[in-house]
Automatic annotation (TrEMBL):
This is Response regulator transcription factor. PROSITE patterns: HTH_LUXR_1, HTH_LUXR_2, RESPONSE_REGULATORY. Residues 2-119 form the Response regulatory domain. It comes from Acinetobacter sedimenti. One of its GO terms (molecular function) is DNA binding. CDD domains: LuxR_C_like (cd06170), REC_NarL-like (cd17535). SMART domains: HTH_LUXR (SM00421), REC (SM00448). Gene3D superfamilies: 3.40.50.2300. Signal peptide: none annotated. Keywords: DNA-binding, Phosphoprotein. The modification 4-aspartylphosphate is found at residue 54.
Amino acid sequence: MNILIVDDHPLFRHALIQAVRYNLPQASISETASVAELYQRLETGAEPDLVLLDLHLPGASGFSALVHVRSQFPTIPIIVVSAHEEANIIQRSIAHGAMGYIPKSAPPANIGEAIKAVLEGDIWLPPNLAHHPNDPRAASETELADKIQSLTPQQFRVLMMVAEGLLNKQIAYELDVSEATIKAHVTAIFRKLGVQNRTQAVLAIGALTIEEPKF
């Protein structure tokens, strides 16, 4: 069993690795700290049996990484592991393709329960979510999620860099390609998202953003 942990906080990655090993000592665990590293691992290595994914990652915006990775690798189950404990965030994560949701405050036993349930094909949610009403945003975001799913992995990377405010020249440098290639990607992104310019593209994906958790 191969489990991939994706989180940009080294201390929490270490804690999560220990929790997984405690519950599943036979598992092989690997780790990455960004969306770029995640895609590199998925595109060049063997597919993991399960991905534990944080929502706040370098190279992503809100639910965008979950939506896109789920579409590109539909056979890999994903459990979101996040500091957010709001019911609406949990419901929206499931609506966007997660098979489970583990709050970072959850005890180690819950982590084991969630992983085992998801590997058996079930959806695992925190016990205290049962009586919360559904969040209407989960349904309203479906159209946007479908558009993001239509992007290629490289187009998704470019879109996230556009959202960060990088210019075409800067994106080309970061991705080691020509500026003309980036312009072609941006044109394709605008067409797939149904927008006319960079500002509209950023506003469009804004629907998938999440407020930072308050500690």
